[in-house]
Amino acid sequence: MLWPFCACVCFRDSHEKIVQYIDLLMRKSECDFFKCTRLTKKTFNFLVGEMEHTERFSSTQQPRRGTPPTAPATALAVTLWYLGTQSAQRDIAGRFDISQGHLSVIVKDVVDFVCGLSQTVNRWPTEPQMNDVEEQFSSLAQFPGVIGAVDGCHIPISAPDYCQNDYLDRNHTHSVNLMAVCDANKKITYCFAGYPGSVHGQSLCQLCTRASRGHFLPPAIPEQPLSHSGRLGISAATTCDGAVQRHWCLNCSAAAL
């Protein structure tokens, strides 16, 4: 007796892809390049150089299963495109001539790499550097005693399965808080993110790691100026023992600088 024979044949869809799109991207003007990646070419090339020093993105790594490794420039461009646009992974993969599954792996690896740079790139100024930053802010905005401009924003997220109300911000959108500080040259010196969108900005300042080190304005000093010409900074206040202690002044926009 012959048993029925069933065969299942799977076909892989063939998608048209753009070859060497990274070369076309690098030939764009500075303005167009920034619109695509949210970075200048100088910063982009710096990150590519740092990636090449890692084992994961080294140009000397051996091909896997006969497939050449993805170049650091392509991996970084793919990740920036994915994070900075609303494009689907399938569209991005086709643009950079890689598979969708490989794109997911690249994004995770690049994000891990960038997060690893945070301790060396986003550095809080030392005491001598604070004096230089104070002079720069004073020259820029005629506002003395400032060592940083701070502002925050809400990063939209998908509604979580639990505690949805905690992530509902003032705009009735589910989000997480992001707070960042920059110096007079608009270089970020501190970043703090992750708290639910319902957390108020003042509470965020008290919860962040810098608050425990005396770098934020405590409620005990309400007489400190909170704003000046729409700018936000850190004002120097004299403590009871005569020592100069710097504190945050809130309700300003770093973008105004």
Structural commentary:
- The chain is of the alpha+beta class and 257 residues long.
- The protein contains nine helices and five strands.
- The chain has helices at 21-26, 30-37, 41-51, 72-84, 89-95, 100-116, 118-121, 127-141, 201-207; strands at 149-156, 175-182, 188-196, 233-238, 244-249.
- The strands form two sheets. The protein has a three-stranded antiparallel sheet, with helices on one face. It has a two-stranded antiparallel sheet with strand order 4-5.
- A hairpin with a 5-residue loop joins strand 4 (233-238) and strand 5.
- It is globular, with a radius of gyration of 24 Å.
Radius of gyration: 24 Å
Q: Uncertain regions: pLDDT < 50 for 5+ in a row? A: 5-11, 217-257
Summed up, the domain count is 2
Strand arrangement, major sheet: 1-2-3
How would you sum up the major sheet? 3 strands, antiparallel
**What gap, in angstroms, lies between the N and C termini?**
85 Å
Average pLDDT value?
76
Assembly state? single chain
Brief summary of the model shown:
The chain has helices at 21-26, 30-37, 41-51, 72-84, 89-95, 100-116, 118-121, 127-141, 201-207; strands spanning 149-156, 175-182, 188-196, 233-238, 244-249. With 257 residues, the chain is α+β, with helices and mostly antiparallel strands.
